Amino acid sequence: MANLKVDVDPAEAGFDADRLSRIDAHFDRYVENGRLPGWLAVVSRHGRIVHVGSGGHSDVEAGTPVETDTLWRIFSMTKPITSVAAMMLAEEGLLELDDPISRWLPEFASPRVYVKGSALSPLTEPATTPIRVWHLLTHTAGLTYGFHHGHPVDAIYRSAGFEWGTPPGLDLAACSERWASLPLVFQPGAEWNYSVATDVLGRLVEVVSGLPLDEFFASRIFTPLGMTDTGFVASSVSRLAALYVPSADGLVRNDAFGRLGMSRPDCLSGGGGLVSSAGDYWRFTEMLLRGGALDDVRLLSPRTVSLMASNHLPGHVDLEEYGRPLFAEMPFDGHGFGLGFSVLEDPVKARTLSSAGEFAWGGAASTAFWVDPDEDLTVGFYTQLLPSSTYRLRSQLRQLVYQALVD
């Protein structure tokens, strides 16, 4: 378990301690008003933890308080880890970003693209370009999520059993084959659409490396970084926070989704399957901030991390211009997308105090992180509230962190 405690006076790291306390007061109000079960926030600068705040309960019914070692379902914060795994293989010369994925996943040799029609009777045409590795990393492959409810192909995904999960009994290889049989929403590379692309990327990691995704993560990323509380199964079920959804009467416990992380899933989801602790994920974000290395462990080169944290959308446009107006874990205005993260292009357009070049993502249960290379800063936020669009927690946290940065 990664150690998580304040190890520097805030003033030494350029923060006003009184202003940092506003983070705690703000999110404690969410707990007091019954809008959040519990929460934990970590602020770090120059490699030192400046602030650890928490409040509320990891299990409301049991009265269990949030602790620094509480375990959280991080859902789509799994995606950056899968993206790092793929880039590690790229650095070893085992794949290139322009490689067609059908080289390893033959089920994607002849994808077809939706043209018109209903979900029950779609008209499709052949893809004019192959799906390439970088399409998966950037969510430009033409894949989708069943929960979007914005396109006939989304409904096709739901009919195939892919809405908020995967069909029982199907492993990652079988899911990849099913996704390959479904139409693409658009021609590969033509648009941005949040999707199962990172799950397919996880399958690619398995085939290229010859290891199941959980074994690759454990041996190549988690063990080297000391992330002993991160995996597809909670290292301690007693420390795993309960999951909640909002209702007119307050928070409602969701034990259906709450079972995630309690046993090994049929499908090892590289797009959303991991459980982690705040301390573990802090080590992962610090590795990214340090250009791919932490302590004596190097996973990636600085050039690779820089490439991942660059906006890969054509012409440096933002997601508002290039993406579909659907749900994602970040706002579209002012944000581009790199190889596994959102990338802040224009703080003014995004109406945020963050720095240009910040890269970030979040998870469906309202967890979030960002890395700000310009300020040498990492921030993580943890709770278990579905969906993440319930409140504006992330923009509020940014405001609270940066108003306390005074140097």
From TrEMBL:
Q: Which domain of life is it from?
A: Bacteria
Alphabetical list of InterPro entries matching this protein: Beta-lactam-related, Beta-lactam/transpept-like, Diverse_Enzym_Activities
Start and end residues of each Beta-lactamase-related domain: 23-396
Q: Which Pfam families match?
A: Beta-lactamase
Q: Which PANTHER family match?
A: BETA-LACTAMASE FAMILY PROTEIN (AFU_ORTHOLOGUE AFUA_5G07500), BETA-LACTAMASE-RELATED
Output this protein's name.
CubicO group peptidase, beta-lactamase class C family
